[in-house]
Design a protein that fits this description.
about 160 residues; 3-stranded antiparallel β-sheet; rod-shaped; mainly beta
């Protein structure tokens, strides 16, 4: 006796559900947005050549730093183009100078030394809009020639 149905293939059971792996790797870091070649402006304003007042200003920034929450952000600022015994603005086209100082806080109590690395504080709530804490202080001498005085300083960010 021959079994005719014995040669028919049996239906195979196939898996109808399975899993696959999904992953992503997020690298912590910071991003400078806008003002990539110039981080802002420290403008002490316009005064009489005879003025002896103290002028305090904050960095007006065209730049925003965005960091992954928890990343340690720091900055250092060099002595500028006219660093001679400290930071100075110099009369454009001349040699007269006026000294100025930089601070890392709005209370002007924490000096920002030349090439000193300082932490840039931020909270997780402003991690996408971090501003650089740079504040300028100048005691006008009251005896310099009139004109425009300027300096250029280099800021280095590290994270």
């Amino acid at each position: 006796m021959v079994c005719l149905g014995c040669w028919l293939p049996w239906p195979l059971l196939a898996a109808t559900g399975a899993t696959f792996q999904v992953s992503a790797s997020i690298v912590p870091g910071c991003l400078v947005v806008g003002g990539v070649t110039q981080y802002g402006n420290l403008n002490f304003g316009t005064y009489s050549a005879l003025s002896t007042q103290v002028v305090k200003v904050a960095l007006s920034s065209g730049v925003t730093v965005q960091c992954t929450p928890g990343v340690a952000l720091s900055m250092s600022v060099d002595g500028g183009l006219h660093n001679s015994g400290g930071r100075n603005v110099q009369l454009n086209g001349g040699t007269a100078r006026v000294a100025y100082q930089l601070f890392q806080d709005a209370a002007y109590s924490q000096s920002l030394g030349i090439a000193q690395s300082v932490n840039v504080p931020y909270l997780s709530t402003n991690a996408n809009a971090i501003t650089l804490p740079i504040y300028g202080y100048m005691q006008l001498p009251g005896n310099r020639p009139g004109g425009i005085y300027s300096d250029v300083v280099q800021v280095q960010l590290s994270f």
